[in-house]
Each structure stands twice: as C-alpha cells, then as structure tokens.
Design a protein that fits this description.
This protein is globular. It has a domain at 2-180 and 297-321: Vaccinia Virus protein VP39 (Rossmann fold), CATH 3.40.50.150. The chain has 8 helices and 11 strands. Helix content is 27%, strand content 16%. The protein is of the alpha/beta class. A 7-stranded mixed beta sheet has the order 3-2-1-4-5-7-6, sandwiched between helices. The protein has a two-stranded parallel ribbon with strand order 8-9. A two-stranded antiparallel sheet has the order 10-11.
Length: 322
Amino acid sequence: MKVVSLFSGCGGLDLGLMKSGHEIIWANDIYKDAAETYRNNIGDHIDERDIREIPSSEIPDCEVVVGGFPCQGFSMANMKRNVEDIRNQLYKEMVRVVKDKQPKFFIGENVKGITSLGKGDVLKQVLSDFEKAGYDIHWKVVCAADYGVPQMRMRLIILGIRKDLLINNVAFPPLETHASKDKESNLKPWLSIGKALSHLPEPTENDQIPNHEYSKYKLRFNGHIGHRRIDPNKPAPTVTGRGDEKGGVVVLHHPNNHRRMSARELAATQSFPDDFIFSGTKTSAYRQVANAVPPLLGKAIGEMLSQNKIEIIEQENIRVTG
C-alpha cells in the first residue's frame, strides 16, 4: 500500500514497512539530521517543514498514514511531563491529516507512559479524536523483544480502520515472532543483546565502521536508568531519548559492562542494519536511534496491515458475489 509517514524521524518505522512490501510516498520530520539520514538511506520524499504549516492538500493521497507522534511529553523518562506539554498536542496534526486524507488505515506509535498520563484521560482523548475522524480504533502495548528486537522496548501501537470498510476479522496486534525462553512457545527465543552485538568489534579495533563511536562518560552501576548493569544473555533495557532534538539520550552500557555502547551498537539494539548510516555528530546519531521505531517492529506492523488489506479484499468479493 502507499503510505504517508508523519514524524518519521530517521525512518525506523518506514524501513520496516518497506521491508514488508509497502511504499512510502511522502514523509515529514522537522529534525534536520534525522531528515538527512532518512534521505540518504530511504529516499528523497521527506519534507522538513513544520507539519503545522503544511496544508493537507499538499500531502498526497494514500492508503495508510503512520506516525510516531512526539512522545517526550508523554514519556515516563520525562519527570516533568504533564498534560499541558505542547508536544502532547502535536498528535492533533496527525488527526487532521487522517481526517482530511481518509486513508484505509492509520498507525499511531507512542511510549507506554501515555496510557497513564492524566490517569488515562490523555489516551482517551487521543483515541476519541481519531475515532471522530471516522475510524474504528484498536490499541495495545507491545514489547519489541517479541518481534526479534534485542531490547525490552514497550510501545503503544494504535491501529485505525476506516469505519466504512467493515472488516470482520481484524488482524491486531502484530503477530509475535519471538518469546521468552521461560514461556512455553513454538516461537523463536528472544534475541539477547550479547548475541546481537557479537559481530561488532571494539571501536578501537576497527575505526572504519560507520557510527562506531562511543560516549566516554564514566560508567556507574546504581540501578537507575542508564546506570544499570547489562545482562548479555537477555534483551537490553529500553533505549531512551530524553527531550526533543536539544535533549539528551540515555546511552546503555555495552553488554560486557566495560563502556557505553557506540552509536552503531545502539542502532543494532534497535534492529537497524549495519549499512544504515546516521548523519550528524555521534550525539545526534544516538538521539536519532533512541527516538526511532525498531525496524523489525515496523516490519511486523507492515505485515499486519497487509493482512487487513487482504481481509478488505475478501469482504468486498463476498459483497459483490452476494
């Protein structure tokens, strides 16, 4: 399907959607380095203007609108979060585009923290606004490790299906491909962070690997976010970005617990391929990685969308044949 991507960042979600067979025809992000990364790795179809200044008429028609609308105001890592944070209002731009373009589907992605903000009232308002735009809504918090990502990243996924499509068997949430080895399952075991990074040498051993620079910030082990000992035999804790493009990033310890991860290693923790190159400084690369949707989760979302498209076709055939 043809997809319009809002708040696309460096393109983690879009890369996954492309891997599952969809076509991204237009994307938007205001962060210059992320847009350059997107342009170099995915395509020239990214618009760097503020979405609030782009009329819906200038956005192409599509079958799907996706968007990881800015989450810093919702994030549990942001101790100053509150309901009035202006960044929390940017989802309304996605509602506006969805309402005006009326795609068959939309996908919203956000942090788990939005589910508890304002005692749940913020999420209720977000879902209500999308429903009023003409969509049946499905949502769930999923774990990226269940999709082959070597990271315990919990994310809210929202699926909107245009009300007139009348799908009987909705495919949601995305089908899991991996599971904890402690769980009885026929799925593959979670990918450990130690295994995910085992192919990358120490940065001092190979300085030709793109983005393989790391923060020299002194390690601490106090159990707090960013200062936790990493178990190489399990998925890593969540890669976390704090603040907007001017904010910081919580850079995880390497699974050997002897230094911080490099930007390349952090990207692998998010399931980016090694040939996906990030533009800008090391700090900017860290930030782009932290704010991204893991491509493997994006691929699972894309496969879910394809299954729902098949269901639409089948329902239409049934109605036509009577």
